[in-house]
């Protein structure tokens, strides 16, 4: 069964529910989150699996997804960290949120109210190959330089929110 997302307004007030595929095809503004795990001046990045419905093979933050209807966003972030990378983090903090829109060449649209979440982590991880094909700890300065030189290697939302996250590390 296809998961549902939470439709929201520009203030993140819930407006209803919709199947994820329909929300990305329409587009409808919906709630999402982007998790950044860090330790010792480094951020854990994941390379999205090549077969993802958009942005396959691009580097992005540690984990990103959508809370389910009725699910608290931080709980959804913990759930997806476990599902995608077998990571268990107790302390996560939302640092800010933003709205973005991006239309991909395949017609899918991202129109998301994205909650940006951070947490410190220094344990192991095990990737779900359906979600991510690689992961790497990247030093802050090296990441900023690579984002500047090679923005095409990164997801559009990552380029938008990573700078604010890096200010806090």
Automatic annotation (TrEMBL):
Pathway: Isoprenoid biosynthesis; dimethylallyl diphosphate biosynthesis; dimethylallyl diphosphate from isopentenyl diphosphate: step 1/1. GO terms for molecular function: isopentenyl-diphosphate delta-isomerase activity. CDD domains: NUDIX_IPP_Isomerase. Keywords: Cytoplasm, Isomerase, Isoprene biosynthesis, Magnesium, Manganese, Metal-binding. It is an enzyme of class 5 (isomerase). It holds the Pfam family NUDIX. Its EC number is 5.3.3.2. InterPro entries: Idi_bact (IPR056375), IsopentenylPP_isomerase_typ1 (IPR011876), NUDIX_hydrolase-like_dom_sf (IPR015797), NUDIX_hydrolase_dom (IPR000086). Residues 28-160 form the Nudix hydrolase domain. PANTHER family: ISOPENTENYL-DIPHOSPHATE DELTA-ISOMERASE. NCBIfam families: IPP_isom_1 (TIGR02150), PRK03759.1 (NF002995). Belongs to the IPP isomerase type 1 family. This is Isopentenyl-diphosphate delta-isomerase. It comes from Blautia celeris.
């Amino acid at each position: 069964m296809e998961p549902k997302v939470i439709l929201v307004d520009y203030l993140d007030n819930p407006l209803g529910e919709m199947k994820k595929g329909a929300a990305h095809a329409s587009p409808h503004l919906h709630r999402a989150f982007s998790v950044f795990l860090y330790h010792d001046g480094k951020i854990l990045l994941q390379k999205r699996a090549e077969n993802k419905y958009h942005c396959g093979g691009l580097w992005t933050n540690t984990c990103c997804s959508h809370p389910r209807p009725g699910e608290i966003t931080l709980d959804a972030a913990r759930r997806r960290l476990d599902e995608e990378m077998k990571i268990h983090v107790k302390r996560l903090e939302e640092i800010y949120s933003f709205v973005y829109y991006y239309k991909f060449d395949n017609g899918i649209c991202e129109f998301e109210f994205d909650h940006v979440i951070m947490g410190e982590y220094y344990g192991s991880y095990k990737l779900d190959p359906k979600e991510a094909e690689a992961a790497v700890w990247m030093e802050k300065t090296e990441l900023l330089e690579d984002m500047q030189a090679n923005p095409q290697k990164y997801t559009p939302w990552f380029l938008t929110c990573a700078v604010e996250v890096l200010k806090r590390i």
